[in-house]
Amino acid sequence: MLKKVSSRLNITSQLVLFLLWVSILPLLILGHTSYSTSRNVIQERVSNYNLALMIEHKDHLEALLESVESLVANISGVEDIKKVLDNSNLASDTYTRLATRAKIGYILNGYLNLKGLISIDIFTNSGFHFHVGDTLNVSEIDQALYNRIYDEAISTDRLVLWTGVEDNININSTHKKVVTAAKIFNVIDADTLHEKPVALLLVNYSTDSFYDRFNKFDLGEGSYIMIIDTKNRLISHPNQKLIGRRISSAFLDDLNDDNGSLVTMVDGQEMLVTYSKSEMSGWVLVSLVPIASLTATANTILNNTLIVLMICFVFISVAAVVVSRAFVSPIKQITELFQQVQANELDGKSRFTIKRSDEIGELLHWSNSFLDSLEAKQKTDRELVQAKEVAEQASQKITVLNQQLESDNAELEKAMADLLTTQQELVQSEKMAALGQLIAGIAHEINTPLGAIQASIGNIADAMNSSIDKLPLLFQQLTIQQQTDFIALVDNGLVPSHEISFREERRQKRALKKLLDQYDVPQKNKVAVLLVQLGVSETATVEKFSSLLQDPNNTFILQMAYNLASQRLHRQNIELSVERASKVVFALKSYAHYDHSGQKIKTPVTKGLDVILTLYHNWLKQGVTVIKNYNPVPDIFCYPDELNQVWTNLIHNAIQAMENKGEIKLDVFSHNGCPNGSETESTTQYVIVSFTDNGPGIPDDIQKRIFDPFFTTKQAGEGSGLGLDIVRKIIEKHDGLIEFDSEPGKTTFKVWLPVNEQTE
Asked: Are 227 and 236 in contact (CB under 8 A)?
């Protein structure tokens, strides 16, 4: 008793736990929820803003590239330049070369007014170089770079080849890194009438202009924008020393859509990455914002929450000290007093000094009164003990005689009870042994629906949490037609769809993006993802819901529709799983039940058969076919638990005989008259249960011994040899009969059970 009391929490501890529960826990939940919500909202808004900014920058970039391509196209169309490039007499006349160089230089100078343009170079196949730009010294040319660009330009199918960021082909130029556009000059060969390349036009654009244009926006501390060409090289970056450096392919693998955003680690720092790809050049514009700078404001909520928590801890500590001194200490003194009473160590003169008039003072007063009463009671008890000792000595002799008589009777009753118990335990042990063989299959049968239920509940909870607060607001924003379309969209999502591969999902998304372009749908990438989740992929279906898709809040509407459809689909999964698990649990409960009344119960025979078939379902489904032929039969008075043991043994033996592959046929029918082999005539009605399997059969030399105790043909550890002996005894207990007939390919066990009215 002392140990039990001391293991409980005292009042001070309970008070501290209570205050923690009602104050700190709600505050902690509120602070964490506020912090998480504000962080997510900030991150989502910054992501949307940066995505719109990247798309706008991409449009500016493509406009810049178009202006350069227009310049290249204009130069390519100048007939004076074409004539000079195809002039075979250029190399033989010094005056002509100088005049031609001056003329082409004058023409090219007219195109240098484009901001950011560094130089324009024309290299003829005959070895001449015409140049205008930032330097006059073009004597040193990077020949390896020229050869590579020439090979790429002549093999491309584009009008203008954008090679990306390159070393300046003019080695003496002050601009070491440039963005290069290239085009091959072709003329018609007079002999073959086919086009032939005669020169390479190179336009070099300044990387500084990209920096000035795309890095002037302040995205926050530690944030920046970079441009990456098709060869994974940096065209623009805040650190211009990195221009031309290659970016890790692992980072670019995550940028697999035309536009998007994600959170990833960059140089050991968690960053919000927003990107947009240029279809014209294949270049990628990327903005990177540190998550830490986004959540700096939200951290204020976390810090304030921690300060308030510390104040609460101080208040709780002070309250605990006050309560301990005012209430716990007197109660502890009373507890120690009663512990002394229980241990018989109480000093008879021990009394409490009362200096207060509240409830604690009243408790001390009544404790003193109890001590007075206890002292008087102890005196009376001592007198009673003395009288009791005299009476006990007189009764001891009678007690010895009664004990001897009771011992003899107990030994006789024990012998009878042991005999009955041994018989019952033998039946129960065989039943439990069979249950042990089934338990793994039963666990699998139950775990499968339970797993489905658990997953569905989690999905329902997520969907409900996402939609329950936002659904009223959504319907306020929708028109009557949009509300009707929204309900139809939810019903469309309720139709179970077959699972599709990741490749097929991406194909559907691309098809939907093209289809959504026709309806001018905003945020088409996110809309396409949600439509695939809702099972919408056909043109007619998209047209049906166009009013919702063209709404500015289309992604919010589609997400709500998906959440509602998901809840109802998962509810159907739970109902099916619960029904399956209930059947298995009911069968297991019925099998494991043991009736201690010892009375026969009126029961349908087929009920027990179905229970055993349910328990063996995991075995049977591996390759055994069960054919049930149940004819209408009357219920019988029987011991259902013991008959279940009969059905278990016969079905299990059939499965093992067929080595888990074959066919079992169950026939149930009634018969009036004597069983086969009976020597007496009778009009008793019987219910007959027949088990037939197509296994190898029972050898003739052991058919007479299969009902003998401890006889078995199974391997050591697979059977005790008591199964059929117990089956026969149970059937005989019911005044029935079991018989069998066996040959290769067909073995039949037939059980005869009489239909008798219950007798007293």
From this structure: yes
667 C-beta neighbours (distance < 10 Å), count: 16
> Which amino acid belongs to residue 267?
D
Q: How far apart are CA 157 and CA 95, in angstroms?
A: 38
CA-CA-CA-CA dihedral for 655, 659, 660, 664, to nearest 10: -40
- pLDDT score recorded for residue 719: 46
Q: Which two tokens stand for residue 427?
A: 């039946």
Tokens of 406: 């009771």
pLDDT confidence of residue 711: 61
**Cα 489 → chain centroid:** 25
Distance CA 285, CA 584 (A): 59
Six-digit token string for 583? 């059947």
In the DSSP assignment, the letter for residue 246 is: B
Query: Does residue 277 sit in helix, strand or coil?
Result: strand
If DSSP states are collapsed to H, E and C, what string results for 381-438?
Answer: HHHHHHHHHHHHHHHHHHHHHHHHHHHHHHHHHHHHHHHHHHHHHHHHHHHHHHHHHH
Tokens of 381: 């008890």
The Cα–Cα gap between 635 and 685 comes to: 11
Strands 195-206 and 177-188: antiparallel
Which residues make beta-bridge pairs with 203? 120, 181
Beta strands 662-672 and 685-693 are antiparallel
DSSP letter assigned to residue 674:
P
In Å, how far from its chain's centre is CA 74?
59
As a whole number of angstroms, the distance between CA 665 and CA 629 comes to 8
- The neighbouring-strand residues paired with 685 are 672
Tell me, what's the pLDDT at 630? 93
- For the chain, state the CA radius of gyration: 47
- The C-alpha angle with vertex 213 and arms to 212 and 219, in degrees rounded to 5, equals 90
Residues across the chain: 760
pTM: 0.41
Low-confidence ranges of the chain (pLDDT < 50): 1-7, 419, 440, 679, 716-721, 759-760
Tens digit of each residue's pLDDT (9 = 90 or more) over 268-325:
888 888 998 888 888 898 988 888 777 766 667 767 777 877 887 777 777 777 777 6
- Amino acid code (one letter) for 427: V
In whole angstroms, how far apart are CA 415 and each of 409, 422, 426, 597, 654?
A: 10, 11, 17, 21, 38
Going edge to edge, which strands form the sheet with 624-630? 624-630, 662-672, 685-693, 746-754, 737-743
Distance CA 504, CA 337 (A): 80
Spell out the residues 6+ positions from residue 594 whose beta carbon is closer than 8 angstroms to its own: 428, 641
Record the tokens describing residue 664, joined without a space: 């079992």
